[in-house]
Automatic annotation (TrEMBL):
InterPro entries: ADH-like_C (IPR013149), ADH-like_N (IPR013154), ADH_Zn_CS (IPR002328), ER (IPR020843), GroES-like_sf (IPR011032), NAD(P)-bd_dom_sf (IPR036291). It comes from Cyclopterus lumpus (Lumpsucker). Belongs to the zinc-containing alcohol dehydrogenase family. Residues 17-365 form the Enoyl reductase (ER) domain. One of its GO terms (biological process) is formaldehyde catabolic process. One of its GO terms (molecular function) is zinc ion binding. This is Enoyl reductase (ER) domain-containing protein. The gene is LOC117751380.
Length: 370
């Protein structure tokens, strides 16, 4: 490859500071170092966690940064020590690494790799300044450098402009239902928040054999999609004067067997817990926030409910993401149906605006040609 071992100058969307539009800049991407892989990003989508970093955190030192973590691309070159990947491989970058060596990777109980939240050194510079990496992936760029433990090699026939969504939202929601909640056949479920994560949770509940799936959202425009994914009932908390947990409890003779919070709001987390039936109800927190603590009455848990959390749907990325790609190719899971808009990376601020206004499920942006 002509670019092998050289600095690549390319286009990226840089977030210079919080709460400001991203700026399309020419950046320099250094060659991959030991155990690193440089990836040409073909397609990337916007997830609410990108918005969270840009608009909702108080951290000023998280900038300038290249956001984006839901993507697919092609390996351009590899650094020393990389044997598993070759230029031309189709890959999905992982925001939770799988080093395969730590005690968490060795346990079948979790996907929380010890190295997962260690921020790797960024290989980006722009106008002489270091630009940070986000989620270990930074996919709003034509090229990015990722540690090999955070890369999944996928089927070479997979359409990258579709399977990019398996890099976060779909796996997160689907896995939260199937792996974390362990939804049972014949059960009644409630999913709070009908973004891509919540819709994927609905899809997971259905795949696990749930008999009744109640979609909860304050934006009724989302209910049509929810039905397409398998929701059987719809509740808009704004239509009721009593708490939504009470509404669900009355609809289900005491509460749902499983609830999933896919919003990222501590009040909704509490409602989701309180919507579960005593004795065996399981509630899973999927939505992300680090601004506030949550609260609940101890009796909720004492009475036999279980409160859990789920990151990336409990999937171990390197081994499980290629399986999810296969499931999509075998038509066992939906992916195309999540895509409501397609754009190019230049339009990233429009894509962010659509999500802010609740007008999209996922916007897939073309970054480079395949
Ligand atoms: N745990 C993980 O690994 C992980 C991974 C990806 C995303 N997330 C988080 O999941 C959440 C959802 O992400 P997304 O990309 O689907 O976001 P999104 O913005 O597309 O969807 C959120 C949905 O929640 C609805 N909502 C807002 N307030 C509500 C309320 N009070 N009650 C009911 N519904 C409400 C919105 O109308 C919207 O439909 C975010 O918090 C995101 O950061 C977590
Ligand atoms: Zn995400
Ligand atoms: Zn590990």
């Amino acid at each position: 490859m002509a670019t092998d071992g050289k600095i690549i100058k390319c286009k990226a969307a840089v977030a210079w500071e919080p709460n400001k539009p991203l700026v399309i800049e020419e950046i320099e991407v250094a060659p991959p170092q030991t155990n690193e892989v440089r990836i040409k990003i073909v397609a990337t989508a916007v997830c609410h966690t990108d918005l969270h970093h840009l608009l909702e955190t108080q951290e000023k030192d998280g900038f300038p940064v290249v956001l984006g973590h839901e993507a697919a691309g092609i390996v351009e070159s590899v650094g020393p020590g990389v044997t598993e990947f070759q230029p031309g491989d189709k890959v999905i970058p992982l925001f939770i690494s799988q080093c395969e060596e730590c005690r968490f990777c060795k346990s079948p109980k979790t996907n929380q790799c010890e190295k997962a939240w260690v921020t790797p050194e960024s290989r980006f510079t722009c106008k002489g300044k270091k630009v940070l990496q986000f989620s270990g992936t930074s996919t709003f760029s034509e090229y990015t450098v990722v540690n090999q433990m955070a890369v999944a090699k996928i089927d070479p026939t997979a359409p990258l402009d579709k399977v990019c969504l398996l890099g976060c939202g779909i796996c997160t929601g689907y896995g939260a239902a199937v792996n974390t909640a362990k939804v049972e056949p014949g059960s009644t479920c409630a999913v709070f928040g009908m973004g891509a994560v919540g819709l994927a949770a609905v899809m997971g509940c259905k795949a696990a054999g749930a008999k009744r799936i109640i979609a909860v959202d304050i934006n009724p425009d989302k209910f049509e999609k929810a039905k397409e994914f398998g929701a059987t009932d719809f509740v808009n908390p704004k239509d009721h004067s009593k708490p939504v947990s009470k509404v669900l409890s009355e609809m289900t003779d005491g509460g749902v067997d499983f609830s999933l919070e896919c919003v990222g709001n501590v009040g909704v987390m509490r409602s989701a817990l309180e919507s579960c039936i005593q004795g065996w109800g399981v509630s899973v927190i999927v939505g992300w926030t680090d601004l506030e603590d949550f609260s609940a009455r101890p009796v909720q848990l004492i009475a036999g409910r279980t409160w859990k959390g789920s990151a990336f749907g409990g999937f171990k990325g390197k081994q499980d993401v290629p399986q999810m790609v296969k499931k999509y190719l075998d038509k066992k899971i939906k992916v195309d149906e999540f895509i409501t808009h397609t754009m190019t990376l230049d339009q990233v601020n429009d894509a962010i605006e659509l999500m802010k206004q609740g007008k999209c499920i996922r916007t897939v942006m073309t970054v480079s040609s395949q």
